[in-house]
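Reopening: Fumarylacetoacetate hydrolase still failing for me.
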Amino acid sequence: MRLINLAGRVALERDGLAVDVEQTSNGRFSAQFQDVLDRWEEFREWANELGEVEGHAFDPTELQAPVGTPRQIFAIGLNYRSHAEETGVDIPDTPMVFTKFVSSITGPYTDITMPPGSVDWEVELVAVIGRRAERVPRSQAWGHVAGLTAGQDLSERDLQVKPPAPQQFSLAKSHPGFAPLGPALVTPEEFCNPDDLEVSCSIGDEQVQLGRTGDLIFSVPTLVSYLSEILPLLPGDVIFTGTPSGIGFALNPPRYLAPGDELQTTVEGIGTMRHRMIAAEAPR
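Support: Ran it again with your exact input. Result attached.
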């Protein structure tokens, strides 16, 4: 099952066409994405029993982030061995967790205004929770995941390393538009192997990142289990799972995004996001 957020209305995507959930369910489910996630088991049963229905063509530029109103966003640092090695940091033995604030979420095809500083890219697989998770064993973790989507953990590196604190991860990664998500939320059974998906990132025609989630140090089930041992994961919560090597900060010399760059983010089986970086207006 593929779910999309079409101009603020949750829809099923079938063969490239949109099936409006509120209309097709005769109001059983609202148009709000969060309503579907809060009632995930009920919705999933309804959607799986839905027969042939008429869909309609849609403009991809109307797609918004395929999430509801997450109460918690988790992000995992240094979760690919290659990324830890390129940054010169020891391989972690437990997940390194920070947050991105909810106001940073944007859709899959938007312009992103760049703040002053050094803006870096980080392609990521993102998991969205569909069922409350507390102390969940790793073997049962996929049952609490509604679906997977593509994400970018955009980062402003100057603020991230600004003294006096050794790292300002959450603020540096939470400028408006710094958490693009999309283009669809895809349920785990749609993948041949949801634990091993190709992820890639390009700037224009130049590929700058390429990896597979099979190389994650801490897999999606491991992250769900680990986090749920500490606090409850709630329907709609978002987990950015980490980025492979190839970030601009680790290059010699470092390279960062510039106004006019088109950033393309692709995850196998989910699709490609495209974002144009634009300069902020000069203060008056």
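The chain has a mean pLDDT of 96. If you still see a failure, please send the error message rather than a screenshot.
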